[in-house]
Amino acid sequence: MEEYAVISDIHGNLEALDAVLADISAKDSEAGIKRKLLCLGDVVGYGPNPNECIAAVKNKKHVLECVAGNHDWAVLGLTGITYFSEYARQVIRWTGEVLSDANRAVLETFPLVKLMEKEGLFLVHGSPYEPQKWHYLLYFSDAEINFENFKGWICLIGHSHLPFVMERSPSGGLTASKTGTELTTGCRYIINPGSVGQPRDGDPRASYLLLNGSRAEIVRVQYDFSETQRKMRAAGLPPPFVERLQRGL
Ligand code: ZN
């Protein structure tokens, strides 16, 4: 397998995205390699820079593959928004208003799922089981049906904004790590890189994943969330979304 960096749930937070891309570049230079980027959706929603974040993702030099998230589809009107909170719906509407036609067209190109057959990687925003229903995949009790519903070695998911690496042994035993693990041939994996633009595990730092054929490692990166918050207030975005960035919840 090649060397990858996996990002998800950018949510229009350009400061966090820039910090993560800079961190990946620095690590690439250090290692003398060029990692390929994979993105697991929700490029927009919540944050103040949807256009700039889509522009960064559509640059193919940056990102190899990107699947659609529920916020991306909500902005396009491709998924119902009744289950979103009133505040989230407000930002979906705001995002739809500020989005350029060119960037809307980019969002429309994101598939719901992507199988990278040669590498054995399956990309989906929510869960491989019924991906269009945006289920949360969080617990061992969610694991079995999802391991049955993807082809390949490793399933990469986003959506919950909670980073983890879940391993299923050939006998069906499950283990999980919040920081990373060595990868074993014969085991299969479901991995969430956490969220770039709106972490929810109590750590406000942006989260992403380094992945190659032998190791999956969650990386955290400090960024200037006060600048993102300033832009959110200026745009009149809902105060709870502004405030949660400093708590990482
Ligand atoms: Zn999200």
Question: What does this protein look like?
Answer:
33% of the residues lie in helices and 21% in strands. The protein contains 8 helices and 12 strands. The strands form 2 sheets. It has a 6-stranded mixed sheet with strand order 3-2-1-11-12-9. It has a 6-stranded mixed sheet with strand order 4-5-6-10-7-8, with helices on one face. Helix 3 packs across helix 4 and helix 7 packs antiparallel against helix 8. The longest helix is centred in the N-terminal third of the chain and has 18 residues. The site of zinc ion (ZN) has 6 residues, from loops.
- What order do the SSEs take from the amino end to the carboxyl end, as H and E? EHEHEHHHEEHEEEEEEEHH
By helix and strand content, what is the structural category?
A: alpha/beta
How much strand?
Answer: 15-25%
Shape annotation: globular
Mean pLDDT across the residues is 95
Question: How many discrete structural domains?
Answer: 1
Please give the radius of gyration in angstroms: 17 Å
- Residue share in helices? 25-40%
Ligands and ions found: zinc ion
What name is given to the CATH topology? Answer: Purple Acid Phosphatase, chain A, domain 2
CATH homologous group name: Metallo-dependent phosphatases
CATH architecture level-2 label: 4-Layer Sandwich
| Number of helical regions | 8
Strand order of the largest sheet: 3-2-1-11-12-9
